Amino acid sequence: MEKSKLTVAVAIIILLILGFFGWRMWQSSGVDLSEEEISEFNPFAQKEPANPFQESNTNPYENIKTNPFE
Question: Could you report the per-residue pLDDT of 11-23, keeping only the tens digit for each?
């Protein structure tokens, strides 16, 4: 039991150290993505309207008569 706890603690410490050094390398690399560069690869960025029929009249129930007995 004691050896497994030690193994988990060492693994967590190694991961924290690697994460810290990875973050420092990323910070020092100087990569700065602008909003335009990010939206170029963003699949959710709207480049055209979501509703292609927004300017046309596409209501199929527009000319239906209502029930006069209600």
Answer: 999 999 999 999 8
